Amino acid sequence: MNITLFTSNKSRHNYLIDLLSKIAHKLFVVQETENLLSGMSSNYYSKSLLMKKYFEKVNKAQSVFFGNPSVKNFNSNIDILSIAPGNLSNYSISSLKRFLQSDVYIVFGSSYIKGDLVNFLVKNKTINIHMGVSPYYRGTACNFWALYDDNPHLVGATIHLLSKGLDSGPMLYHAMSNIKNDPFLYTMSTVKSAFHYISERIKDNSIFKINPIFQNKKLEIRYSKKIEFTENILLNYFNKKINLNCKKINKTLLKDPFFLEQ
Q1: What is the pTM of this model?
Q2: Percent of all residues in the chain with a pLDDT value above 70, rounded to a whole number
Q3: What phi and psi values does residue 219 have, to the nearest 5 degrees?
Q4: Domain harbouring 161, CATH code
Q5: Count of domains in the chain?
Q6: C-alpha 68: how far from its chain's center?
Q7: Roughly how many angstroms between the first and final C-alpha of the chain, as a whole number?
Q8: Bridge partner residues of 171 (DSSP)
Q9: What are all long-range contacts of 49-53, with beta carbons under 8 Å and residues at least 24 apart?
Q10: What is the pLDDT of residues 36-63, one digit of tens each?
Q11: What CA–CA distance (Å, rounded) separates 169 from 155?
Q12: Range of the domain at 228
């Protein structure tokens, strides 16, 4: 089985590359190479001590679950095309031809895909890993906002079919976590939950037998944008006493949820 992954280059993205390379005959990766210290440089979110504090905690949690930011099992079955962030939709179908002859297509952490490429990917039933529990949270930093809104039971990932709209495609299942020692570890553990379960379901071919369901947009709690992630919001977040167990997870709100255990 050949797999094509559209992703980025932080340690969590490279961990997914390693994981998929173990189940793929050939793994093609289109990788947008962003700054590894997002949040601590002026070309991402506004530069400040508060932002730096937040992203240091994110990166520390990421290192706990995914280690160093490199592809560890770089072997002959991995073919990587590195591109600048935000340029993915500028590549023509013909220029990506070598990467568009797979059995499975996955998107995780890439820039917004438009034009002929998204048409191709939608037609080929591409799987998107959205870090947030749709349809309740869509947009950016969804798990941050779920905690901010005192909805820790809606922290997780949605594995759905790619659509032209943002995080709006038919849902396959949700990936969650029971690791609740710390807000940053909790949210990052849901990333690992998403990775391992999608790998298992691709390996045994069960992912192709799932009946996807359309999202009920009336259930949306928040559609978040990058511009809303401000210093004032972060100050409120750090001043909150986040209780990760204030609301129990209600499985009836989820689609076939998988839980990563301690």
Answers
A1: 0.92
A2: 92
A3: -90, -5
A4: 3.40.50.12230
A5: 1
A6: 18
A7: 31
A8: 160, 213
A9: 50/231, 50/234, 50/235, 50/238, 51/231, 51/234, 53/238
A10: 544 444 454 556 889 999 999 999 999 9
A11: 19
A12: 2-260
